[in-house]
Amino acid sequence: MRKILKSLIIMSFILASQLTFAGSFVDSATVTSVEKVFKQYRVDEPYQECYIKESVQSGDGSATNELMGAVLGGAIGNKLGDGDGKDAMTIFGAFLGASLANDAEKANGTGAVVSQEVCENKVRQVIEKRLSHYRVTVDYDGREVSFSSKKRPYDDVIKIEVSIEGL
Description:
Helices cover 34% and strands 50% of the residues. The protein is an alpha+beta fold and 167 residues long. It is elongated.
């Protein structure tokens, strides 16, 4: 226990003797140059792309032809059917008549061409060049020193903070 205590005391004396001297003060320096430093940023830019879409609208837009085909087909199926199959033939005839009327309407080319404007929202990435900071170079006591600054210095002489560290 005594060895540990002695070791801790010796270590604290060694650390205390190694303390550094540090200080800072404000002084003036002459600005020799100011450079703008830019960075590139990737930015999403939305835009809208529009075009004309043409489509063929088949038929005349009404179901009259199909209904008439179903009625005629059902009537023919009813005449052809016998006994228990009469109902089945009537339904089959109605479906077949409606289908044939629809196909005939499409084959006649009675469809109209419909033009419609279609717009799509899209995003493209663009690279923008933006001001990041200023690289300021000053002459201080015959030495050229550079540093970064968010603000642009407008005076020829500026105040700087000088830090001194020594062992």
